[in-house]
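Researcher: Hi, I'm a grad student and pretty new to this. My advisor asked me to get structures for two proteins we've been looking at. I'm not sure of the right format, so I'll just paste the first sequence and hope you can take it from there.
Model: That works fine. Here's the first sequence with its structure tokens right after it:
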Amino acid sequence: MSDTTPAPPAAWPLVALFTAGYVAPYLLPTVVGRLDAHLPLSPAQAGLVGTALLLGSATAGFTLASRIPRRGPRPMARLGLLLAVLGYGTAASTTLLPLVVAGVVVGGFGSGSATAVAAAGIAGHRDPHRISSLGLLSVSATAGALYLTLPHLGGGHGLPFAAIALVAALVWPATGRLGGPARPGPAAVRSSGRPPYPRAGAVLAGCLLFWSLTQEALWGVSGRIGAEQAGLSEATLGVVFAVALGAGLLGVTGASAFGTRLGRAVPIGAGTVAIAGCVVLTASADGLAGFAAGEILWNAVYPVVLSYVIGLAAALDPRGRWAVFAGAASSLGTACGPVVGSLLAEAFGLPGMGLLLGGLLLVVAGPLTAVALHAGKGPAAAAAAGEPALRVEIPAPGVTAGAGRPRRILLLSPAARRGQKARGGPQGVGW
């Protein structure tokens, strides 16, 4: 029987697609700031437009999670990039508020589509942690370059949108290296519609929603903390944020080089606890030293933990469905973050907001760590140990055994076949 499983796509197209999908959320502060400054919108209304962008991205993830394996990554990626170019291009080229909002929502759906395809592809790779780390490194570098460049290119609300659309257009050629639609045949193996490990996956997605909400809640009021509470000028704030982005690049580089030597549970659990401390430190800062320390340490640890979380979602389902669902949940939490941060700051003050967000992170650290420990016994680990990673039985047409009962063919992964052979069991057919 011939191999019907498509080879995983090359790494660099997934990294490029990951960058195109994530660059919009990374640029959200400057997007919202320019909407507030150059269009007839209040700060709250501009924030709602940013929330609409992130909700569009989350909707794409929840919508496409089950469709990517059937449709194929290439057409879905191209659809997402096309929507991003059209949506953000429209938002950049007009000052009519209805068109701007519509363009933002369409562009957000396109960004979420690109992120979903990238997440599904990363999950199918042998080392998803390394690929996700490269993706985070790429998007951090791209966003950092844009943060340094955009202020020198003039004003107007459309410049950040045009930059996001340009990134999506530049990534388009990379989609040629992605796979096309699936080709089902008589021997094709179709897995059930429900992803494996539903409890662990649901816990991961739920925790990641609140995990991302706390990050964006702090990010949404970081400028206010620095200006009002720490007494920093706009120029000083810009330097702090630039250094923080640089720390994020170093953190992701270190995580990529270190890999999974400690597994995923330790980096995710300990990293989330460290982020909780950074949140409290930043929100309670009353000077440059405390604010800069909190922001820089936070931005150094956050992408590191995120890279391990992406790898964890991939370990739960190599087909990438939990990676897509987790990414969509993260986008939903990110969308709600600025509103939650503002409400908590108004109700409890900035230090009180930091304590509440830090406490929430400590609450989700436990379940995240438990899921990471559980994933060590998942399909990837089972295959490495020689256990069957995929076990499907299909009727063999035209072959009978015994009293006319159809013989069954056992399909096993290559690693499972080696394990069965070593134990003297049935070796089945490779896929």
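Researcher: Oh nice, that was easy. Here's the second one.
Model: And its structure:
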Amino acid sequence: MTVQDLQTLERITSHARTQLARLDADMAPDALNAASGYWLMLTLSERAGAARALGRSGIPMLVDEVEAVQAVVLNLQSYEGDDLAVVEGHELLNRVTVLAQLPCYAVEIGGVLTLPDREPTAGEPSPN
């Protein structure tokens, strides 16, 4: 995922959070963050900062995070999300789905999950 993808995700989850709060004003903040997928922003923003500090260009996502993006986008339609946010969400979901299918080796550096900027060359050990 790129920084631009993260910004798109922030717009989508913020919109989802606003829509859910409008539909259920009594929803607890933790439940609101979970249902809207806004929790992803906390996790991925920290990972993006760590990746940038390590000089990495990509922000890795775990499988359950990709599934959470899918749920947010699909659910946004059910609670009357803005059409533009829904379209933008589907575009992001398509991109994340394609990226998830590409072979990539994540590396843990100092407890931070990162993506290498390049694939290993022939004869170079795999980072896994």
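Researcher: Is there anything I should tell my advisor about the second?
Model: You could mention this: The two ends are 20 Å apart (CA to CA).
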